[in-house]
Amino acid sequence: MLQKISDRLHFLISETGFTYCNCIVVEDEIRAILDTGADKKSIDSIHPESIDMVLNTHHHYDHTRGNQYFQNSQLFIHALDYPPLSCRDDYIHYNSIDRWENLMPNYDYNEAAILMGIEEADLERNLRVDQVLNNDQVIDFGRTKMEVIHTPGHSAGHCSFWFPDEEFLFTGDICLTQAGPWYGEIYANPDDMVKSIDRLIALNPPRMTSCHINEICYDNKKRLTEFRDRINKREERIYKSLKKQPVDLHQLAEQKLIYRLHPTPFVLFWEKCMLLKHLEYLQQKGLVEMVDNGVYRAL
User: What is the largest CA-CA distance in the chain?
Assistant: First the structure.
């Protein structure tokens, strides 16, 4: 479904859920799409063969799975997220799949990927980048101008896209959903996420949306602030839990301190990846230490 944002901007809302995303379509002298994770029916509706530019907010599968359908387009992504879209080994590393066996000893990765709807063939078909994006770069589509804002945290090269004339911000996977923020890969960083969100709060966009909500938002300072503050609240929950009882990572993940539910093995995996980042910071602050057999305890 296409929702009008302005005369030349449209919000492409995918008809499929998890592992897909919504996109922004620019209809100007240069036709462009921001992210390509919409379902195939939605992508076909915008005639991908005539799209000139694909600009990915970051490298994750649910945002790049449709890149393969834009054969006549130039594909752009930030330089720090270039490697996982150019090499399968880097894809595995950047998505922390090389940690799966250690963190998920009782789960088969291939079975979990199938359950999530991740198609192996798509990964291979989408290993292409033509040009890289840089912070503060201005993309000129004709009558429409877009500014690239490097907003790392969700991934190292994650970007948000600002349309100053339309006063509209596309936050990518600063997702604004009840489940976020997400920082479950090797180069994701919750501290960077906080700084990135602060930068967007300072921008104070009148209108905003993300890849994973189906609405245009207007109460944006409030919404971004609440979203940012969840990160510290998670860390507080982790510390309070360890004050009650020392546990290892797997036991800590069972307490569901980040996600209320673990409906798939991937959600449990991401919980563990994010817990490790918080545990590292708590150790750096001298609030937590690791003792024998991978057990963490509060100091």
Answer: 62
Architecture of the domain defined by 237-298: Orthogonal Bundle (1.10)
Domain ranges, ordered by start, for the chain: 2-228, 237-298
Which amino acid appears at position 36 of this protein? T
Report whether the peptide linkage leading into residue 190 is cis, meaning its omega lies within 30 degrees of zero. Answer: no
CATH code of the domain made up of 2-228: 3.60.15.10
The 10s digit of each residue's pLDDT in 11-70 is 999 877 778 999 999 999 999 999 999 999 999 999 999 999 999 999 999 999 999 999
Token pair recorded at residue 72: 């006549």
**Helix crossing, 265-284 with 190-203: angle to 10°?**
90
pLDDT of the residue at 124: 84
Cα torsion for 143, 139, 170, 43, to the nearest 10°? 80
Q: What is the pTM of this model?
A: 0.96
Identify the burial level of 207 via C-beta atoms within 10 angstroms of its C-beta, where 0-12 means exposed, 13-18 middle and 19 or more buried: middle
Q: How confident is the model at residue 227 (pLDDT cuts 50, 70, 90)?
A: very high
Helices (H) and strands (E) in the chain, counts: 10, 15
Q: How far is Cα 175 from Cα 196, in angstroms, rounded to an integer?
A: 13
